Amino acid sequence: MAPYLEQKYASTLFPLQYVANSKGYIQSALPASTERPTEWTRWVAKSRQGERVYQYTPTIEDPAEFGLAIVKWWNAMQPDFRHSDAGLPRPIYSTDTSTGKDWALLRRAGPNGLVSVLTLLAWWGQSLQSCTQWQEDSGQLWMDTISDVTKVINVLKAVSGGTKNKRKADTDPQIKESKR
Hints:
- This protein has six helices and two strands, in the order H-E-H-H-E-H-H-H.
- The protein has helices at 3-16, 38-44, 63-76, 114-128, 139-160, 173-179; strands at residues 26-27, 108-109.
- Strands 1-2 form a two-stranded parallel ribbon.
């Protein structure tokens, strides 16, 4: 992945790390699954042998078209106040009456939760590196989508109260060794 892609994508992954440990996240698929890009559906499907082959990521022939499919799905799963007719959702991240219930449909953990959006964004970012001169450059749309996803993840973190640790980790190495 190109350095600018790594930096931008890493900034999105950082706020997502709380999702796995946060309360209020449901192990369920994100909404609007019919809008999900077909590359994802094929990738998570079982092979003829009944296994999933996760080590091979799909080849993205047209990064711009793939990106538009991701943006369409991302827009379709948003709360009503963020839906737009085309392109990215409206840049509204709170309302006067905004509560965690407004964002409940996006509070999904597990393999078909928010991690699927990030995986698709990673594939899109990687595919941008192999864009030919005859293909449309969707790099700016990719970065705008990363920005929007990051802001939504931060909203989800804020309305859910973030991660609550039960206790602080021991910082003394001798204590850690004695526990093992």
